[in-house]
Each structure stands twice: as C-alpha cells, then as structure tokens.
Amino acid sequence: MNTVGKLFPDLGGPATPPPGVPTLDADPFCEAFFADPYPVHAQLRDAGPFVWLSKYGVGAVARYAEVRQVLTDWETFSSARGVGLADFVKHGRFRLPSIILEADPPQHTRSRAVLNKALSPAVMKGLRDRFAAEADRIIDELVEKGSFDACADLAQAFPLRVFPDAIGMKREGRGNLLPYGDMVFNSFGPPNSFFQESAPRAKEAFPWVETQALRENLEPDGFGQICYQAADRGEISHEEAGMLVRAMLTAGVDTTVNGLGAAVYAFARFPSEWRKLRENRALARPAFEEAVRFESPVQTFFRTTTRPVELGGCRLGEGEKVLMFLGAANRDPRKWENPDVFDIGRATVGHVGFGAGIHMCVGQLLARLEGEVVLDAMARKISAIEITGTPVRRPNNTLRGLSSLPVTVKAA
Ligand code: OVM
Q1: 3-class SS of residue 410
Q2: pLDDT tens, 34-76?
C-alpha cells in the first residue's frame, strides 16, 4: 500500500514485486527508523541482495556489493529521472532538476567538469589557511564556554561561517541555507510529514537561493565565479552556471553540517578514539572519513533502471526505481570488520558515504578540508568531550544527524 500524499498520486513502482524477491514492510522514512536504523539495515541486508519494500512498492539494495554495483553503472541505473522516490517521468518534479545530481552523461559530464574546477585541489589549497584559522577561532570560543551545543554552535556554525564566504556569497540571509537544504533532502523521500513540514519553512529560501546564485550577487574572488568563468569560455551556458552554483549551495551545507556532527558525536561516544587522535593529529583527515562511513550523513539515494537488468539475482524491467541504502552498505559485515565500531585507524577506502562512480561527491575535498581543520583544532585544544544532555535526532528523509548535542569539553 502506498500511503503518500496527493503530490505524487501514484508514487511507488509496480504493486507486486518481481517473483522470488524477499518482501519487507519496513518503513525507512519514519521516526522510529531514524531513531535506530541499524536493526532494519541488518534485516534488509540479511533478507537478500535485492529486496522489495511493500510500503512504497519499490526495490532496494542494502548490501555493500549491490549498492556499489548500482552506483557504478550509470548507464543502467540512471539519475536523470530523479534520485528520490519520485520518478520525474511518471510523477513530475517539484523543482527544476539539478543539472549535475539529476543528470546522466553527456549533460552530467559537462556540469561535472565545471564543478571539478570550482572544487579542485588548487582551490582547496587557497582556502585551507582561512578555514584552519576559522576552526581555531570557533574552537577557542567553545573551549572558553566549556559547555555548548555541538550541533548549533559547532557542526552548523562552522560550515555556515566558511562555506558561503568561500563561494563568495553576501552576508545577509545565510540562515536560509539550512531550511532550504532540509527541504531538498526531505524531497528525495516520500512526501510524508517530514517533507510537508519542511516545505513551508523553506518557502522564502527557494527564491533567495536562486537569486544568490546569480553572478552579480557573488564576490569576484569566490569559487562560485569559477562556474561563470567556464560559461564565459563557452563550456556551459550562463544559465547553467547559475544552476551549478545553486547545486553547490544545496548540496554543500547540510551534508558537511551532518558530517561534522557525525565526527563530534562519534568521538564523544568513543573516548579511546579521541585519545588516539590527540596522540596523532595526522589522523584528523582519516578520522573524518571514518565518521562519514560510520554515520553516513547521506543515507539513501535512488536510481531508475534504463533497461532490463539482473540485480542480486533478480530480473528488473526498464523504468524501475531502486533504493540504495548507503548507510547499510557502510556497515555491511560482508565488507567491513566490526562495522559498528568507530575506529579511526581502519582502512575506510571503498566506503560509499560519498557515493561512488561518476556521481561520487564532487565536493568531497571541501568536506574533508572542513572535517580535517575542525578535528585538528579540537585535538589541539580539547582533552575530553562529554555528552551532558540527551542528544536530539533531526528527522530527515535523506540525512542522518542530530539537531542538538549538549556537550562539555575539557581544555587541553
Ligand atoms: C543538487 C544537489 C542537491 C542535493 C544534494 C546533492 C548530494 C546535489 O542540487 O545538485 O548532492
């Protein structure tokens, strides 16, 4: 049964699964699941390599091998019909499609080339000192306070301070970025109460983001201008340049907020790992990577089949949505040793927290830079992190993270 609203009246694929597919009635887009997804992840993985979610009439993969198979075969598993539950062809869409996230080659290739330049190693090199100085400043302030909310005061505050500056945005209105991202990431799931409630909060943010992405609203030295310079050279149109800046504004804030939040939350729960980092600060970057594997801030994305294909021993037809559980793949015991342990010394190579294949996170260097400088500053200035109140989960159809994490830190 699909219980979705009137936005997408016939949301969900065929009413019956292909023969022989294990069927589960679990709901991966509800509060109870967000509170503790891990037992359901295990059920999904153990039921089979390809499973059917009866609540949404859609197929899903939760094992590492099959998630990777889907991610790395864009010709069969397309993004152009949307990477959420809604199929653009069957259900329409509620915003202009992203020309990178919701595109296949050749459009994707052109967009990706431009964003690769905007988010290149050379650009990151130019940002590093500023980001590190800002991390030091924020951590100094927080150590001075002693007790604070690691979500609002750190995981949100840091990206909101450095990222819009780096793109070259104006100061006013940056508070729009979080409600905007919250809504977009909710929109990849079903149009449930989380989506419905995030929509009015983001109403003003939508036109604001479009306007902020215009060339005249970006500082000349920010990396947003790199998209417009590519347009000047004829690599993309000027309209597309604006759409790519919009994509960065959409994808670059909530993701890093939840990545940083994941790292702080993990270190607060694994004090031995905190000691390990303090003894060897070269682990700051790998530790952030492990936090991304461990929590998988982006939990899920969908693809749509472009042709009949065999997946996990099942025959799928053309035009079928497949849900990928990135978070379950990142904790699949078939792939990882002690997957539920946060271990900053582990080899995280191959994790799918940033995706894989042609769509693998184009902003990953920026995310890692943020993670590294924040963890490095914390490791120098903080000797212990203690959770002093009840962590509050933030429900979102795609993102995993907290809305509040009260902590007390001890100055080093
Ligand atoms: C975009 C976009 C939006 C949300 C997420 C994302 C994780 C991209 O508009 O391109 O990538």
Answers
A1: strand
A2: 999 999 999 999 999 999 999 999 999 999 999 999 999 999 9
186 CB within 6 A, ligand 1: no
Question: Is the minimum distance from the CB of 101 to ligand 1 under 6 angstroms?
Answer: yes
Per-residue three-class SS string for 117-168: HHCCHHHHHHHHHHHHHHHHHHHHHHHHHCEEEHHHHHHHHHHHHHHHHHHC
Does the model's pTM come out above 0.90? yes
Looking at domain 3-411, its CATH superfamily turns out to be Cytochrome P450 (1.10.630.10)
Instruction: Report d(CA 25, CA 209) in Å as an integer.
Output: 38
Could you tell me the residue ranges of all domains in the chain? 3-411
Residue 100, CB-side half-sphere exposure with 13 Å CA sphere? 27
Pocket of ligand 1 contains residue 324 by CB under 6 Å: no
Q: From the CB of 100, is ligand 1 less than 6 Å away?
A: yes
Q: Using one digit for the tens of pLDDT, what is the confidence trace for 247-261? A: 999 999 999 999 999
CA of 250 to the centre of ligand 1 (A): 6
